[in-house]
Recover the amino acids of this structure.
């Protein structure tokens, strides 16, 4: 009886030792290579960062190496949207030449054209207007590039968009048109200006 107990205890110790050894060896083992998936993910992140910074050389190099030009971040921003929003004209040109989709929006439906109109980058708006996208394309809130340009008083961009056929009558989900958005930027001062010097001298006579 005692012998059986001893043999059972010894077997249990051997089993536990084997398990501990296996666990220790697994901790020491080199991590498995991630392969192409990790490399592609890293390349996409580099592409997005380069587009945001306007590093056209890195952007073109990564695309030539096979990085998808339509890479997206968690908010749905593509390299083209980032480059357009940050005003990097040459980077936008390179991305369009590489086949970037100018009509694609982010998670909220905002396109590269909307971003450029929002910031007032007329040269980029001109390039994007040459793409086969609807000039009155809307985001999830029904807003157009013309509305963004009107809101911030981007007069040159507004004129470009109107020449392309953008309608000031289109209304967003709140019922406001581009004209309504433009009216929210009333330039009149809250305090009446002082009378002109000529008027002051005339009234004193």
């Amino acid at each position: 009886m005692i012998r059986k107990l001893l043999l059972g205890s010894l077997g249990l110790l051997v089993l536990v030792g084997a398990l501990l050894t296996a666990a220790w060896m697994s901790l020491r083992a080199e991590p498995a290579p991630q392969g192409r998936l990790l490399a592609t993910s890293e390349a996409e992140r580099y592409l997005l960062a380069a587009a945001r910074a306007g590093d056209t050389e890195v952007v073109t190099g990564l695309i030539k190496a096979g990085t998808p030009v339509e890479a997206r971040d968690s908010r749905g921003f593509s390299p083209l949207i980032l480059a357009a929003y940050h005003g990097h004209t040459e980077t936008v040109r390179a991305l369009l030449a590489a086949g970037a989709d100018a009509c694609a929006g982010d998670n909220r439906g905002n396109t590269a054209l909307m971003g450029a109109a929002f910031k007032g980058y007329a040269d980029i708006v001109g390039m994007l207007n040459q793409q086969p996208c609807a000039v009155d394309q809307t985001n999830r809130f029904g807003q157009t590039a013309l509305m963004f340009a009107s809101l911030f008083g981007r007069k040159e961009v507004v004129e470009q968009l109107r020449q392309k056929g953008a309608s000031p009558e289109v209304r967003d989900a709140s019922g406001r048109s581009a004209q309504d958005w433009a009216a929210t930027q009333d330039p009149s001062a809250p305090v009446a200006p002082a009378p002109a010097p000529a008027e002051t001298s005339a009234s004193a006579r």
User: Anything to note?
Assistant: The chain has a mean pLDDT of 80.
